[in-house]
Structures are given as C-alpha cells and as structure tokens.
C-alpha cells in the first residue's frame, strides 16, 4: 500500500509586507517625503520621485513578477497631514495558477489619509491567470479634508493565450471610510465556472471592468451633484454598446 500524506493545514508560500509613511517637510519647502517603515520581499519600493508641485510619485514593486498561490501580502501607507502622494505599480498584477494544498493568494491593503492629504492610487490592471484563486481586502480611511483618486481594473485573463474568465475565483472587498463613517462598502466574488460572467445579468459581451472613486471629505453635496451631471453626459457620449459602457453616480457623501 502506498502512503498518502494528507496536509493538516493549507500551506502558505510567503508573507510579503510593505509599510510606507509619508510626511511633509518643514516650511518653506513643504514637500512630501517618504519613509519606508517595513518591507519584506516580494513587495518593495525603491524610492519616491519628487514632483514639481511638492507631491511624490512612488512605484510599488513585486520582485517575484506576480502573485503566487499561497502568497499572503500586506500593503499599507499612512499619509500625514497635507501630504500629496501618487502610488502606482510597475506593471500589471499577475495572479498565477493556484497550487493544490496552498492557501488562496491574498493581499490586504490599508491606506490612512490624514487631514488635508491627497492619495492617488492608480495601479495597472489585475490579470488572473487560468486556475488562479485570489482574495483582496482593501480599506481606506479619510480624515477631514482628505482627498482620494482610486481605481481598479480587472482583466478577463491572458487574452493572448485564449484564457478568458478561466480563473477559479477572484474575491474583492473595498471599504472607504470618511471621518469614521463608511461611504463605500463593495463586495465582489467572481467564480466563472459556477456563474458565467458572460450572461446578460453580469458582464454580457464585455470582458474588462473597472471602478474609479473620487473623494474629497467636506466637499459640498451640490458640487458632487453638478459633477455627476457633467460626467453622466460624457459617459453617454463615450459609451459604445457592445464595446465599452460607462456609468457614474454619487456616493452618500464626500465623493462619486
């Protein structure tokens, strides 16, 4: 008889951490500077690039080239008062095929945006490979006067390899909190093999989808309503049925 080893717990491949802190230099320069408080591969940041307006541009690196089955990653950034930060990736986030007996690949992201600070989080698309299993939890906390530009784009897979919705599961959660009150609670679980994403009740003929949030704590509701009307008109003009579909709506407060 052949012995079969049964794992007592799912395996974890690696734990990557990247914790960033941004603060403002003293007058008269009033420029944003970066302090890396903790980084554990595969997550890494090389440097922050100063911009003419006093903000900084920071590229986030995954030196393993993607997210592997069992990876448990943590990304956090704390923006001090009046800082201005743009975070972006150096390429698409590739989620590789899940490996048996390993935990689902997981990333937890936490941003704390201080009083009057601004964060632009503009990563490249997420590409889940065939057989991938990925869970992502994101929480963003905004103080009084804080601003946010945040987007996320999900690809159907590796189209060049004819991998269209061939991943096992992608689970995404997003919480945005302004002055300790939730303004966005987004929950999404995609399981193409169990619930076809090409049905008319889901994505239909479309393959990519993205969300883009704009927030400014304390901005008057009338400003958001006027902006919604302007962008709604633009969305209608840019929509091409069967090719691209745009939509826009305001949040309960502080953004759209």
Give a written overview of the molecule.
Mean pLDDT is 91; it is low at 1-8. Strands 2-1-5-8-11-13-14 form a seven-stranded mixed beta sheet, with no helix packed on it. It has a six-stranded mixed beta sheet with strand order 3-4-6-9-12-15, with no helix packed on it. The chain has a two-stranded parallel sheet with strand order 7-10. It has one helix and 15 strands. It has 256 residues and is mainly beta. The N and C termini lie far apart (63 Å). The chain folds into two domains: 15-218, no CATH class; 221-256, no CATH class. Strand 1 (15-24) and strand 2 (32-40) form a beta hairpin.
Return Rg in Å.
20 Å
Q: Can you count the helices? A: 1
Poorly predicted regions are 1-8
Order of helices and strands: EEEEEEEEEEEEEEEH
Strand percentage: 35-45%
The largest β sheet comes out as: 7 strands, mixed
* Distance between the first and last residues' Cα: 63 Å
Give the number of DSSP strands: 15
Shape: globular
How would you classify the quaternary structure?
single chain
- The helicity comes to under 10%
Determine the structural class based on helices, strands and strand pairing. Answer: mainly beta
In which order are the strands of the major sheet placed?
2-1-5-8-11-13-14
Tally of distinct domains:
2
Overall pLDDT metric: 91
């Amino acid at each position: 008889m052949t012995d079969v080893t049964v794992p007592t717990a799912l395996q974890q491949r690696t734990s990557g951490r990247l914790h960033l802190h941004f603060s403002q230099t003293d007058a008269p320069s009033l420029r944003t500077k970066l302090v890396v408080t903790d980084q554990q591969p595969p997550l890494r940041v090389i440097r922050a690039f100063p911009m003419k307006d006093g903000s900084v541009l920071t590229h986030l690196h995954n030196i393993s080239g993607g997210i592997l089955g069992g990876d448990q990653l943590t990304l956090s950034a704390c923006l001090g008062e009046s800082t201005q930060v743009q975070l972006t990736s150096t390429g698409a986030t590739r989620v590789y095929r899940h490996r048996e007996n390993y935990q689902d690949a997981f990333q937890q992201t936490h941003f704390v945006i201080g009083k009057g600070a601004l964060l632009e989080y503009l990563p490249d698309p997420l590409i889940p490979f065939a057989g991938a299993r990925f869970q992502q939890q994101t929480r963003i906390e905004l103080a009084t006067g804080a601003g946010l530009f945040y987007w996320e784009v999900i690809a159907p897979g590796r189209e060049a390899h004819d991998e269209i919705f061939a991943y096992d599961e992608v689970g995404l959660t997003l919480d945005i909190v302004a002055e300790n009150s939730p303004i966005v609670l987004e929950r999404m679980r995609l399981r193409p093999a169990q619930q076809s994403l090409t049905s008319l009740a889901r994505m239909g003929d479309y393959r990519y989808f993205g969300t883009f949030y704009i927030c400014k704590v304390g901005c008057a509701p009338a400003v958001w309503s006027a902006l919604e009307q302007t962008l709604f008109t633009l969305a209608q003009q840019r929509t091409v049925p069967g090719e691209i579909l745009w939509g826009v709506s305001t949040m309960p407060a502080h953004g759209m």
